[in-house]
Amino acid sequence: MALGPLPDYPWDRLVPVRERAAAHPDGAVDLTIGSPVDPTPPTIRAALAAATDAHGYPSTAGSADARRAIVDWFARRRGVPGLDLDEALVTVGSKEFVASCAFFLGLGEGDVVVQPSVAYPTYEMGALFAGADLVSADDPADWPESTRLVWLNSPGNPDGRVRDVDSLRAAVARARELGAVIVDDECYAELGWDEWADRPIPSLLDPAVVGDDRTGVLVTSSLSKRSNLAGYRAAYVAGDRALIMRLLTARKHAGLMTPAPVQHALAVALAADDEAAEQRERYRRRRELLKPALEAWGLRIDGSEAGLYLWGTTGDDCWTTLDALADLGIIAGPGEFYGDAGRRHVRVSLTALDADVERAAARLRAAASGPEGPTAASEL
Ligand SMILES: Cc1ncc(COP(=O)(O)O)c(C=O)c1O
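Above: the input record for the complex with pyridoxal-5'-phosphate. Below: its predicted structure, written as tokens.
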């Protein structure tokens, strides 16, 4: 089946909201896209610079150093010990992996890809590229018999929800019953808040979830957010050896290689836990400022236990809430972009500089106590 017309990139639909926000006398604060704004740590930049004699083609799987760093990180930070080097693979950021996975695994017409009920849009694009059907469902009981690939995303974008061990176990059990591959996109795994601030967010590859059998199970993660490396395009996949081999073979044929200097930087970045902790602290402070200010203004925050977004609703359609925020010069993202279940929510990103987050929080607090008053979340 040939690839049909592709949807327009949805962010173009935000132009009128941007124009409305730009009319604010003190300027607009953009809290839409989750692109890191803080510098890449100097040690990682030095690693990239040190590896620029890259005359030969890089390894598609990833250099031994890069894969060793991935395996060590899973053991040290994610409670997943004992991965072998051939159970890990580097990718050119995780978005291309999400988009290409269904196709490379051989899914096609009549197969179903499952994604969360509110979801990062690229899972859908991956189903479209493969010619497969898409079902949005969180409850494993709702995954149809023809499911061949299940995407989990814990912690989730946009809703910041975390699946605990029991929930992950139930998902794996159902995927195995269906004979489906299950992949958890864990790119926000080290950004837990509230009850997850002091304990690790469980990985799908945790032995408490899969026991000693990783068959059919993969995890992808990324350095874009953890280490401010979005511009490098550095991410990875780990899990079932046979699936990794299948993906590696496809990726070798397609020429999907992470550049050698980036592989070197990836290895250094994955070991740089202190720098990641510093960045996490920046986001924690921004969240502490924004969350109460949004709540005082009238947004009920749902989920958002982890990750880089506050997912909230006033009870109105998302475009109405976006206009109200734009009147304060604040630009947020429409929940509708993440599926029909999100159409009354907006997504507010924590990836803005401190001064911008402070400006946004001050405007929200002033509006909450001003004559236009808040829409009390308790009235929802
Ligand atoms: C859930 C999720 N997966 C994957 C990605 C892609 O990240 P990258 O391609 O930078 O690794 C993002 C980026 O925002 C995301 O939110």
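Notes for the reader.
The radius of gyration is 21 Å.
Confidence is low (pLDDT under 50) at residues 376-380.
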